[in-house]
Design a protein that fits this description.
Helices cover about 40% and strands about 0% of the residues. The chain has about 450 residues and is mainly α. Among the domains are: about 85-105 and about 225-320; about 110-220, Endonuclease III, domain 1, CATH 1.10.340. Helix 4 runs antiparallel to helix 8 and helix 4 crosses helix 10. The longest helix is centred in the middle third of the chain and has 19 residues, at about 165-185. Residues about 1-30, about 40-50 and about 340-350 have low confidence and may be disordered.
Length: about 450
């Protein structure tokens, strides 16, 4: 009996802890879900630490949202980029072909600096002989350059009839003289030669109305610079031969020619290219132009040369830049044009709003045939009528009245008792006798 009681009491008490386990602090019980009660057949001698903890259930995974496909970017159509022609090989061929056809015209360096500017204004898109003749006649017929400055463009164009475009040349002359007069209050630019080339270029670029051709021509002939002046004819010649692209032809800006052509041959090449440009403007389908294009670039006859009877398309300059910078540039150009506008009504176009038009519907109402509805013809024109009054009768001048004779003063009678005085004759004889006497 005693043995069974001891075994029962030992089974109800927990097992004694060892010394190592007694020295450690008891670990915090982990939060676990409530364990199920042990089965009845389980041995009571096992410790609760030996039981395996229950594995927690995994949370339910939420389904992933459906991924929307990204919209495809619109495919931008790339324009074909025009390749820059090989100028290093084509320019020497062009110079050789031009030498075989034309003769260079040496510039006249004896002119004054201002005369060089005026000659360049006449030379643009014109032959050299015609420009020389027109400028000489203009200076000989005018009293001075100030008279040319204040003359209307129509009158100047009449004296420049030798040029292909006299109106353009007349306007260029007027603007050049007006810019010189406003900058120096005289008609002289000799101070531009006394300094460096950069100072002369700034002086020319500061004159309002000068084209790039005029600036480069004067800089190369009068200042000794190295430039290739390009007018509309020269650009047409370079475009036809395939030396420049369509963009350079439209903008009028070609870079690299002064690096290919040496300085000692710059003036000669400029003169030859200018003559070739004149032929391109006046006789594009002639044998001379075709011969040069065939010698320089035969492929350009198919790509660039227009069909027979068709002119070369005019350049299409790009529109001004949009935005604030473009607006500022346009305003600055408009203000400069108004500030440097030459005198006279036909010098340059005035901006809108300067001379306002009458409001629509003003004036007398007219019928379809041009007559007024009221029948009145309007105010009569002012006509100076001749003098139709009575003729003036001019009377002959009357003779002056005869002068009245002055009465003679009465003579005093001579007294009878007094002797008469010496006469004037006797007094004269006495003075003659005294003069004959010799001095003592």
């Amino acid at each position: 009996m005693t043995a069974s009681k001891r075994s029962a009491s030992g089974a109800g008490k927990p097992a004694p802890k060892s010394k190592a386990a007694a020295g450690k602090k008891p670990a915090a019980p982990a939060k676990q879900p409530a364990a199920k009660p042990p089965a009845k057949g389980a041995a009571s001698g096992k410790s609760p630490a030996a039981a395996k903890p229950a594995v927690p259930a995994k949370p339910a995974v939420s389904p992933k949202p459906a991924v929307t496909p990204k919209p495809e970017k619109a495919q931008v159509q790339k324009l074909p980029v025009e390749k820059t022609p090989a100028r290093a090989t084509l320019v020497p061929k062009l110079a050789k072909a031009l030498k075989s056809v034309y003769k260079p015209v040496p510039p006249n360096t004896s002119r004054s600096f201002l005369d060089q500017v005026l000659f360049a204004c006449c030379l643009e898109n014109s032959p050299a002989a015609a420009a020389e003749k027109a400028l000489t006649r203009l200076i000989e017929n005018a009293f001075d350059l100030n008279e040319v400055r204040v003359t209307t463009v129509a009158e100047l164009a009449e004296s420049l009839q030798d040029l292909p475009d006299p109106a353009r040349a007349a306007l260029a002359l007027r603007r050049a003289l007006q810019g010189v007069f406003e900058s120096t209050y005289s008609f002289s630019l000799e101070h531009a030669r006394k300094h460096s080339l950069a100072h002369g270029m700034r002086t020319l670029e500061g004159l309002h109305g000068l084209s790039p051709f005029v600036v480069h021509h004067v800089a190369s002939t009068a200042l000794g610079g190295h430039f290739i002046p390009l007018d509309q004819g020269a650009l047409a010649g370079l475009f036809v031969t395939g030396l420049i692209t369509q963009q350079e032809y439209d903008t009028g800006k070609v870079s690299g020619l002064d690096r290919i052509i040496p300085k000692k041959a710059g003036i000669e090449f400029s003169s030859l290219l200018h003559q070739f440009g004149i032929d391109c403007l006046t006789n594009l389908h002639g044998t001379t132009v075709r011969k040069i294009v065939q010698a320089v670039n035969p492929a350009a006859l198919k790509d660039r040369f227009p069909k027979r009877g068709e002119p070369l398309p005019a350049p299409n300059p790009p529109p001004p830049a949009a935005g604030k910078e473009g607006q500022k540039a346009a305003d600055a150009a408009r203000l400069a044009a108004e500030a440097h506008r030459p005198a006279g009504p036909q010098a340059a176009a005035r901006p809108a709003g300067k001379t306002p038009l009458p409001p629509p519907g003003s004036g007398p109402k007219r019928t379809a045939d041009g007559k007024t509805a009221s029948g009145k013809t309007g105010p009569k024109p002012f006509v100076v009528k001749p003098n139709i009054g009575k003729p003036l009768t001019i009377k002959p001048p009357e003779p002056p009245p005869a002068a009245a004779a002055k009465p003679k003063p009465p003579t005093k009678p001579v007294a009878a008792g007094k002797p008469a005085g010496k006469s004037a004759a006797e007094g004269g004889k006495h003075s003659q006798q005294l003069a004959k006497r010799k001095p003592r």
